[in-house]
């Protein structure tokens, strides 16, 4: 219900924005393919970008009626492997510079990656916080089950950094292969807590509560995005990346709980 | 599927009489199945193979895989053989439905099986909540949970094999045993089981091989933790996140074990003329 309302509100705001743009733009119709932005764009993006990018994709398609955006969301590292194995994609957005590096190292990026957002960890707990988790140290209490991301994926690497910064040594019950997997275990009530990105906790706010912890400031993830060398539709790919970096893209990302990149 | 085919005294069609047009798709089909395996062999980092195999994580995952697959097979034997017997020997209303239900895990995506297991045996599941509260037993994130996930996916293989063997077996031996005074249990253990032993063995091996390869239900229900729930397929998936070569090595180990199993089984269920 709330999602539907939000969507309607967004669509309304969007129609208005489009109308205004149309008035201001005069004869030049940006959506009619005058800028060459048309056709399919395939974007491989970190699982934590699912909600924000899905919304951005809708907005992008509305702004460029000839273009369609298709997303593949998964763990950043798995996506990087797919890109390097020649997956047919136009854009790659990772949840950390470390998972972007294999792609740039292999020469599969068309440009230098641009940082477009930052994300911070929170402790996600089932609604009502049955495990009474208030701080990172509570996660080591006996009987408290914790899910982490595997350290091979960015949320796991960030969790490891944050735990080290806090001097907390904990044994999780599972190391999930991406952040959504860790969050799902919280939603199901199978674990009492998981370290996930704030944006993921925000997206699942109806089912999980988020507990902020100060040490998360020591493990902030920068999100890089790049147009791929193998892109079949480089014009639209560049337009999408530009859209993500634009004011409107930044607003959508902020609404999902992301922070703007460091100036 | 697994039942040893009855020796058919049919005359064989000599190869040169077969339509030539069939050989092309047949060859392509074979290549399609074998090429990926060849790809694995071609890309394997043979030079560093020994060191990679000796890496502690590999042996831990392999040991856990062998242990849980064996546990799952034992569980399937204990529950699946009686189930197959009931399906083959007892007439009851709804038997077709039960038989269909038994084979559902064969076609169900394993991830769905994992979700379903969570909803029943999870901490907030139908039975799991009770297990946790009264017995203090939680199954997700435990090795027992892995066994459960593997058994769920692998049991149909055993049931189908054993049921097929039971149907093919001559029921007159059982009747003879009964007329000679053997009780039902004695008949089952002394006549029926030995009669279908080859079918049970073939089903058990197939069940074991399927359990060894289980991924989706395991990662969904039991999670992923080295030494406790991280089996070989999970290790392969996670290795792929960072190190393609490590993933290839792990895959190679699984491939070797699987091929060895199937080669050992060859006479049982792919008997050719």
What does it look like?
The complex is a heterodimer of chains A (263) and B (273). By secondary structure, chain A is of the alpha/beta class. In chain A, 40% of the residues lie in helices and 21% in strands. Chain A has 2 domains: 39-117 and 222-256, 3-Layer(aba) Sandwich (D-Maltodextrin-Binding Protein, domain 2), CATH 3.40.190; 121-218, 3-Layer(aba) Sandwich (D-Maltodextrin-Binding Protein, domain 2). In chain A, strands 2-1-3-10-4 form a 5-stranded mixed β-sheet. In chain A, strands 7-6-8-5-9 form a 5-stranded mixed β-sheet. In chain A, helix 2 (50-63) runs antiparallel to helix 9 (247-255) and helix 3 runs parallel beside helix 4 (97-105). The model of chain A is unreliable at 1-8 and 12-33 (pLDDT under 50). By secondary structure, chain B is an all-alpha fold. Chain B has a domain at 69-229: MetI-like (MetI-like fold). In chain B, 73% of the residues lie in helices and 0% in strands. The longest helix of chain B is centred in the first third of the chain and has 34 residues, at 56-89. Chain B starts with 22 loop residues before the first helix and ends with a helix. Classes of the chains: A alpha/beta (263), B mainly alpha (273). Chain A binds chain B through residues 75, 77-78, 81, 145, 147, 150, 152-153, 172-177, 181, 185, 188-190, and chain B through 118, 122-124, 140-141, 219, 222-226, 229-230, 237-238, 240-242, 244.
Question: Which keywords apply here?
Answer:
heterodimer, A: 263 residues, alpha/beta, D-Maltodextrin-Binding Protein, domain 2, 2 domains, 5-stranded mixed sheet, 10 strands, 40% helix, disordered N terminus, B: 273 residues, mainly alpha, MetI-like fold, 12 helices, 73% helix, 0% strand
Helix content of chain B: over 70%
Number of helices of chain A: 9
**Total domain units of chain A:** 2
CATH architectural category of the domain at 69-229 in chain B: Orthogonal Bundle
Protein name (chain A): Molybdate ABC transporter substrate-binding protein
Organism (chain A): Micromonospora carbonacea
Keywords (chain A): Metal-binding, Molybdenum, Signal
InterPro entries (chain A): ModA, ModA/WtpA
């Amino acid at each position: 219900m709330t999602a539907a309302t939000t969507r309607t509100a967004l669509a309304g705001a969007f129609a208005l924005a489009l109308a205004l743009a149309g008035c201001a733009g005069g004869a030049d119709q940006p959506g009619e393919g005058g800028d060459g932005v048309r056709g399919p764009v395939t974007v491989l993006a970190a699982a934590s970008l699912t909600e924000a990018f899905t919304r951005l994709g809708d907005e992008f398609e509305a702004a460029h009626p000839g273009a369609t955006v298709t997303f593949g969301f998964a763990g950043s590292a798995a996506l990087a492997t797919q890109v390097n194995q020649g997956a047919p994609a136009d854009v790659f957005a990772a949840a950390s510079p470390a998972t972007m590096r294999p792609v740039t190292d292999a020469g599969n990026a068309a440009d230098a990656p641009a940082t477009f957002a930052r994300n911070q960890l929170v402790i996600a707990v089932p609604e009502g916080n049955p495990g009474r988790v208030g701080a990172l140290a509570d996660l080591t209490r006996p009987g408290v089950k914790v899910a982490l991301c595997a350290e091979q994926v960015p949320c796991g690497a960030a969790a490891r950094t944050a735990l080290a910064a806090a001097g907390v040594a904990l044994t999780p019950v599972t190391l999930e292969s991406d952040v959504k997997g860790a969050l799902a275990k919280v939603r199901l009530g199978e674990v009492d807590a998981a370290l996930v990105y704030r944006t993921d906790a925000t997206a699942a706010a109806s089912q999980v509560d988020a507990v902020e912890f100060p040490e998360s400031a020591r493990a902030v993830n920068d999100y890089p995005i790049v147009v791929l060398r193998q892109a079949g539709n480089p014009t639209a790919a560049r337009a999408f990346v530009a859209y993500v970096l634009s004011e409107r893209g930044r607003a959508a990302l902020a609404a999902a709980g992301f922070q703007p990149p460091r100036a | 599927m697994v039942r040893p085919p009855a020796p058919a005294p049919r005359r064989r069609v000599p190869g040169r009489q077969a339509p030539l047009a069939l050989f092309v798709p047949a060859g392509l089909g074979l290549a399609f199945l074998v090429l990926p395996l060849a790809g694995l062999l071609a890309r394997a980092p043979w030079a560093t193979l020994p060191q990679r195999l000796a890496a502690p994580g590999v042996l831990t995952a392999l040991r856990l895989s062998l242990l849980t697959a064996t546990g799952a097979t034992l569980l399937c034997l204990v529950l699946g053989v009686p189930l197959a017997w009931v399906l083959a020997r007892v007439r009851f209303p709804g038997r077709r439905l039960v038989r269909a239900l038994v084979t559902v895990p064969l076609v169900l995506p394993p991830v769905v099986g994992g979700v379903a297991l969570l909803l029943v045996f999870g901490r907030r599941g139908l039975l799991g909540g009770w297990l946790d509260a009264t017995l203090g037993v939680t199954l997700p994130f435990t090795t027992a949970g892995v066994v459960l996930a593997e058994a769920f996916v692998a049991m149909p293989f055993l049931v189908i094999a054993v049921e097929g063997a039971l149907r093919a077996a001559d029921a007159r031996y059982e009747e003879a045993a009964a007329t000679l005074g053997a009780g039902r249990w004695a008949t089952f253990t002394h006549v029926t089981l030995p009669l279908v032993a080859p079918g049970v063995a073939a089903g058990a091996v197939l069940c074991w091989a399927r359990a060894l390869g289980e991924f989706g239900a395991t990662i969904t229900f039991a999670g992923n933790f080295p030494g406790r729930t991280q089996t070989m397929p999970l290790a392969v998936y996670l290795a792929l996140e960072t190190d393609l070569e490590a993933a290839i090595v792990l895959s190679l180990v699984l491939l070797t074990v699987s091929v060895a199993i199937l080669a050992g089984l060859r006479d049982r269920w792919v008997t050719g003329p």
